[in-house]
Amino acid sequence: MVNRTFTNPAIVSDFDKFWENFSPNAIIVPDADVLDLQPGAHDLVIHAMSLHWANDPVGQLIQCRRALKEDGFLLVTLLGGHTLQELRAALAEAETRVMGGLSPRISPMAEVRDLGGLLQRAGFALPVADVVPLTAEYRDVWHLCRDLRHMGEANALTQRLRRPTPRRLFEQADQVYRTHFANEAGRLPATFEVVCLTGWSPSDTQQQPLRPGSAKMRLADALKVPEEPLDKD
């Protein structure tokens, strides 16, 4: 989708085997608080499915920008705020009933409107944030939880409950999940909201926004629609 040939890509990912055939010139660095990236060394940085785990998301983006050459491209994919919304609701209701309170079980994830702002704070030009919603189906809550562990997306919050969770909590969560979210086939849908962020390292050769008030055409004329006065009431 980007009409550009990249020759020095860097990939931030803990799943290096997945990316090993991406490009012969690519370097793959693990997701860490301090990324092993050299300043100004890359024309492309891909931050793949790990920014939602970052302790300092803005710091990660700033490190990526510093690693880019002038007019270099950043592509970030991560899970957004609506991810696992069904499981989050089911666990909250079940834990309130069984345990009499709540504990952190699913990581907080950012909304797409906030993530776009992070790109600007990190100094990227032409920032874009988009969403790809995906839905997977599971037999039951245990099936979903096993899949999350295999994905590396299990609960890793520092304030998580440290003692074993009673089985009756998950039995209650499965019942709540089925009551509110099960489809006609009796399976449990789970939302995964994949957010895609793109931005460019600033360059004088890039398109620049026009000065406010410099438009030469009225918006109504550009859209070819009649202009009507606002109702003051």
Tell me what the structure shows:
With 233 residues, the protein is α/β, with parallel strands linked by helices. Helices cover 30% and strands 23% of the residues. It has a 6-stranded mixed beta sheet. Helix 3 crosses helix 6. The longest helix has 15 residues. The model has no long low-confidence stretch (mean pLDDT 90).
Per-chain topology:
Layout: E1 9-12, H1 16-19, E2 27-29, E3 42-48, H2 57-67, E4 68-79, H3 85-99, H4 112-121, E5 125-138, H5 141-151, H6 167-181, E6 188-200, H7 219-223
Parallel strand pairs: 1-2, 1-3, 3-4
Antiparallel strand pairs: 4-6, 5-6
Helix pairs in contact: 3-6
The percentage of residues in β strands lies in 15-25%
Q: Briefly note the structural class of the backbone.
A: alpha/beta
Average pLDDT confidence is 90
Low-confidence stretches: none
Q: What is the count of β-strands? A: 6
Distance between the termini: 46 Å
Rg from Cα: 22 Å
Keywords:
233 residues, alpha/beta, 6-stranded mixed sheet
Task: Give a nutshell description of this structure.
This protein has 233 residues and is an alpha/beta fold.
